[in-house]
Design goal:
Layout (H helix, E strand, L loop, with lengths): L16 E4 L14 E2 L3 H8 L4 H8 E3 L6 E3 L10 E2 L2 E2 L7 H5 L16 E4 L8
Antiparallel strand pairs: 1-7, 2-4, 3-4, 5-6
Helix pairs in contact: 1-2
Bound molecules: iron/sulfur cluster (SF4).
Iron/sulfur cluster (SF4) binds next to loops.
């Protein structure tokens, strides 16, 4: 099974269910891009006390498709921002991280993520 990012996987959302992060950090440990959106870069740099150029130089690379930046990964494929079981930039982490598995996911994601489901009201689009 492949893992990945919001742009390149099928999302299977379930109406009436929201998943709460179980802090397993599995999604921080698999290989692949951790996409940085344009507006996220200055926010994360400021949180780390760096200027944007230094942050880009030290912690990012081109995405696989070369259409934007990704956070670097360590040799073992963990995200460069993962320290033990904690995200170093948790309050300002990228939308890719904050959104999984509720705004994007991929077939079989339940096998590699310990988020737990809670029931939420289903919104009626007609209201
Ligand atoms: S930025 Fe934080 S939440 Fe996102 S993959 Fe890296 S360590 Fe995990």
């Amino acid at each position: 099974m492949s893992h990945g990012s919001p742009a390149n996987h099928t999302t299977a959302l379930e109406p009436g269910v929201r998943y709460i992060c179980g802090r397993c950090t599995n999604c921080c440990r698999w290989p692949g891009d951790v996409r940085l959106e344009e507006d996220e870069i200055p926010r994360i740099a400021e949180f780390l006390g760096m200027d944007v150029a230094e942050f880009i130089d030290r912690h990012t690379r081109l995405r696989t498709n070369r259409r934007g930046l990704s956070l670097l990964e360590k040799e073992n494929h963990e995200c460069v921002m993962l320290e033990g079981n904690a995200c170093r930039i948790h309050p300002v982490k990228p939308a890719q991280c904050a959104g999984f598995p509720n705004t994007w996911n991929f077939p079989g994601w339940r096998n590699v993520c310990e988020a737990f489901p809670v029931a939420v009201p289903v919104t009626d689009p007609g209201k």
